[in-house]
Amino acid sequence: MRSRLPKVLHPVCGVPMLQYVLDAAVSATGSRPLVVVSPAVPEVRAAFESVADFAVQEQQRGTGDAVRAALEVLPATVREVVVMSGDVPLVSADLVTALLGIRRELDAALVLASVEAIDPTGLGRVLRDEEGTVLAIVEEKDASEDEQEIHEINAGLYAFDARWLRRRLPDVPPSPTTGELYLTHLVELARADGEVAEAVMLPDDGSLTGINDRVQLAEVETIVRRAINDAYMREGVTMVDPARVIIDTSARIAEDVILEPDVAILGTSVVGRDTRIGAGTTLVDSTVGERCLVRASVLESSTVGDDVRIGPFAHLRPGARVGDGAEVGNYAEIKAATLGARSKQHHFSYLGDAEIGEDVNIGAGTITANYDGQRKHRTVIGDRAFIGSDTILRAPVTVGEGGMTGAGAVVTHDVAPGQVVVGVPARPATRQQTAEVDPDRTRTT
To answer: Are residues 269 and 181 in the same domain?
Structure first.
């Protein structure tokens, strides 16, 4: 992979590829999986310690040695062992279940999956006699020229009788070429014992293809993404151009949602019914309610209510919360702040570490100056307040219910409910200034 990230942690549609393998294993066996890891990659254990047990292979001496490490920590009561590769995310639970069923039906020491590969380069070849009985599996490094012409390859998926596996695994000899212990040598040991060793040939549909580089990673991601999008469209989601929509496996999208091109719905994002996600929008771990419109914007770890309008070019950063019926316009940014129901922040403004009430108007260019160089401070704006264009609110500060600021005001002290302030620094407005800011209010006072 040419990467500092362990291969099995590379994501496929937002989920580490190993997660797909573990999900298939659990679904097929009902058992907690056991992952064999190298001490050189503690990140794998850290990522999956809540859902799997672990065995450590101290030295990388081949697949046989990896299974030896697993058996050392596996309870003696285990009667069957399934061995799977952590870099084959398209493997299905149905296939694992079928392999186990064949092993039980034949009372076999082992059953493995094989594939008739178009290009078998680098893979172990399955050797059969004229009657089709499996004789052995030979790794390419150890194969003769004739054996390298064979296209039936070992797919790396096995079902074992656990008792037989424990007894015979120590007898696997090291490869004369590499010194590794090959799990595939157990085929020959089973034949020597008079036990059944079967290879079940499967179509080469890609489901057992391992990922070894970024090209194969992209190919698998494309397959998974297409399956995700197809499933959502069948469940009532409209995609204007499905090839240009990215949805992570952990996201959830309701019926009658419309997704325009170049939309990415990532992480644990949720989109409610009748919402339209416009072209160029990215949602990351965010919830968007029903009947919303989000256009060309980025939402990160944010929560949006129903009937909300966002964008274009808005940015909701982590902790942003937008109430029902609110509007967030172009080049507006919200961070760790709440914009109350029916409030409007139309354009060119920043609300950070703030609590904005309901029915508030945030004028263009408004900024909550929340950082003093050492600490963040909060701004509170009460219901039905009117914040004039280019207002700077130097936190900590509170604007009371119905309070108003004139255009360009720099608010350094709290504004009382219903009060109008203007200027730099902002001061209570005179009657004439109030008339300039809000003529209707002057007539009613």
So the answer is: no
Same domain? For 222 and 190 the reply is: no
Tell me how far apart the alpha carbons of residues 235 and 379 are, in angstroms, rounded to a whole number.
43
Nearest partner of 173 among 145, 194, 192, 196, judged by Cα:
192
Instruction: Quote the number of domains for the chain.
Output: 2
Report the distance separating Cα 438 and Cα 406, nearest Å.
9
| Final residue in a domain of this structure, among 202, 237, 252 | 202
Which residues are catalytic, by number?
A: 347
For residue range 220-278, list pLDDT tens digits in order: 999 999 999 999 999 999 999 999 999 999 999 999 999 999 999 999 999 999 999 99
CATH code at position 352: 2.160.10.10
User: What is the DSSP code string of 382-408?
Assistant: -TT-EE-TT-EEESSEEE-TT-EE-TT
Give the Cα separation of 304 and 26 in Å (integer): 35
> Residue 202: which H helix or E strand, with range?
strand 197-202
Question: Is the CB of residue 136 less than 8 Å from the CB of residue 127?
Answer: yes
Contact 110, 190 (CB under 8 A): yes
What residues contact residue 157 under an 8 Å CB cut-off, 6+ apart? 82, 83, 84, 85, 88, 91, 95, 96, 99, 112, 113, 208
User: What is the distance between the alpha carbons of residues 343 and 356, in angstroms, rounded to a whole number?
Assistant: 8
Q: At residue 385, does pLDDT exceed 60?
A: yes
CA 42 from centroid of its chain's CA atoms: 20
Beta bridge partners of 199: 112
**Strands 134-138 and 125-128, sheet pairing:** antiparallel
Residue 273 lies in a domain: yes
pLDDT confidence tier of residue 3, bands split at 50, 70 and 90 = very high
Question: Which range marks the domain in which residue 52 is found?
Answer: 7-202
Q: Hey, what's the torsion of the CAs at 229, 51, 109, 112, to 10 degrees?
A: 20
